[in-house]
Amino acid sequence: MRLLWIAVVASCTACAGNLRPATSSRPNEEALLILPGFGYRRAGARALESLAPTIHREGIDLYVADYLTRGGLAASRTKLERFIRDNRLERYRRVHVFAFIAGAWTVNPLIEKGKLPNLGRVVYDRSPFQERAPAIAVDQLRMLAWLCYGSTIFDLSRTPYVPVAPPGVDVALVVESVPTTFIKRHEKAARALGHVAFECGAFNQRYDDCGYVELNHDELYERFAELWPELLSFIRTGHFSAAINRTPPASNPLDSIKHRSNP
């Protein structure tokens, strides 16, 4: 049993590590800072690493911050601020941000305090499903949640989202329209947390554009290359392309799941 717990914890805490441009390369004028969340694993890290040369050819240096700690959101925020400082992101003309869910909860207070004065455009990954996952994990898998993620997942489960709207900064939302296996497994608990709203205005965040992807939270890490053309369009123009889906799902995908008791 002890070995089983060790294996489980090792799996859910597998560190994907930081990603930054090679020190030998000449910095571009712009940078993209990606802030992963709890679902970031080595497969996602490999996908982003393979995309880095493509991003670099567009004149943008890619940084992926391994900032989440077990010590809570405040400690994670301190680690992220140190990552920004240690990598001298202030030297870029503009630093664009793509924030997965935990990333938004972490970086928004830093943006509010002006810790990214050269902030370019910001894209938030949002999900009416996955944003319920921390509360479900804490309620139903309390010990495992703590072993895997420490205080941070507890902080995230009880901390309301605080939006930021810096003047002159364009903001976009990418909304996941597919539930993860975790949410499907805990479908009853997800429903119990209230109405599932996909509309862009339901996320308590000012936005200049908003689009939907038929991916779940886990898939978005590993298939980030599929989103990259839209992200590049937003970085360049302040809008996604005409190809992105801007229509929310007509029904709740959880309705197609046969009723069952949560394990």
Account of the 3D structure:
A 6-stranded parallel sheet has the order 2-1-3-4-5-6, with helices on both faces. Mean pLDDT is 91; it is low at 1-8. Strand 1 (30-35), helix 2 (42-57) and strand 2 form a beta-alpha-beta unit. With 263 residues, it is α/β, with parallel strands linked by helices. The protein contains 11 helices and 6 strands. The two termini are 19 Å apart. The chain has helices at residues 2-12, 42-57, 73-86, 101-112, 133-140, 142-149, 151-158, 181-185, 187-192, 217-222, 224-237; strands at residues 30-35, 60-64, 94-99, 119-126, 171-176, 209-213. The chain has one domain (2-239): Rossmann fold, CATH 3.40.50.
Write the layout of secondary structure elements.
Elements: H1 2-12, E1 30-35, H2 42-57, E2 60-64, H3 73-86, E3 94-99, H4 101-112, E4 119-126, H5 133-140, H6 142-149, H7 151-158, E5 171-176, H8 181-185, H9 187-192, E6 209-213, H10 217-222, H11 224-237
Parallel strand pairs: 1-2, 1-3, 3-4, 4-5, 5-6
Helix pairs in contact: 1-6, 3-4, 5-6, 5-7
Short account of what is shown:
This protein is an alpha/beta fold and 263 residues long.
